[in-house]
Specification:
alpha/beta, Rossmann fold, 2 domains, four-stranded parallel beta sheet, 12 strands
Length: 270
């Protein structure tokens, strides 16, 4: 019955927490590649190699469906994985789809021509690798017209969150928002394009101002997954136990994860 959730570090725990609340009866196996985090500064080939290795580990743990709860992996590796690597009896899904569905107010399977949407000026905050991939803009262009997207590479934010330095993370968020708003002074909406960033949602909202609608991924991904499994229940794998796996130091990662979710989380070595 297990579903796998993968992230380069701890950010994907925001998605896991939302999925666990939305689907409390589904065992979840989480794998954080903390030994190689952050992914946002790595090359596309490096990200692909690390992501396929981690996904294969989740397949081995009894997960037939794996969510890449990492925007960098979704941007740099997912399409390549789906085109030539994922076995026919497995599925790997990313986190862009639910976000674009929410922004465009249309289902992913809706293949009608692109149309105008309410948001005309969209700020995208993401890791350098996600910004460089232009994956979000590419997928959005299939579904919406007349949308101006200004992307800001938020260097350092993931590292600060992973290190538990929320004061530095707050300062970096404000700096990156200031940099973006010099290029786009009045965004209608803002996309938090990294699963670490929901932990800083209040800080992003404060820096952007109350008039900007902020889209954060965790609950959107959880709702989308629930809908997917209702349509494709056969994709729930045979695993029966929830687990937290890490390529890093289990004791250190467990302590930080416990701070993240404000409940006891115990990781074991992947």
């Amino acid at each position: 019955m297990a579903v796998g959730i993968f992230d380069s570090g701890l950010g994907g725990l925001t998605v896991l927490d939302a999925v666990a609340k939305r689907l409390p009866d589904v065992p979840l196996v989480y794998l954080g590649d903390s030994a190689h985090a952050p992914y946002g500064v790595r090359t596309p080939d490096d990200i692909y190699d690390l992501t396929t290795k981690a996904t294969d580990r989740l397949f081995a743990a009894g997960c037939d469906l794996v969510i890449l709860a990492c925007n960098t992996a979704s941007a740099a590796a997912l399409r390549r994985m789906q085109e030539g690597w994922v076995p026919k009896d497995k599925r790997v899904l990313g986190v862009f789809v639910p976000m674009i569905e929410a922004l465009t107010e249309r289902q992913w399977g809706d293949n009608s021509p692109p149309r105008e949407v309410a948001a005309k000026h969209v700020a995208l905050f993401a890791t350098p690798a996600t910004v460089a991939s232009r994956a979000f803009q590419r997928e959005l262009a299939f579904r919406a017209i007349g949308v101006d997207v200004e992307a800001q590479a938020c260097g350092g934010v993931v590292d600060a969150i992973e290190d538990g330095d929320m004061i530095l993370a707050d300062a970096l968020v404000r700096s990156h928002v200031d940099a973006l708003m010099r290029k786009m002074p009045s965004p209608d909406a803002a996309i938090l394009g990294c699963t670490h960033y929901p932990l800083m949602e209040a800080e992003f909202q404060a820096a952007l101002g109350p008039e900007v609608k902020v889209f954060s991924q965790a609950n959107l991904v959880a709702d989308s997954l629930a809908d997917y499994l209702e349509r494709r229940p056969e994709m729930i794998g045979p695993g029966k136990e929830s687990a937290f796996l890490t390529t890093g130091d289990p004791k250190k990662v467990s302590a930080r994860a416990t701070q993240f979710l404000r409940r006891q989380i115990t990781f074991t070595a992947a």
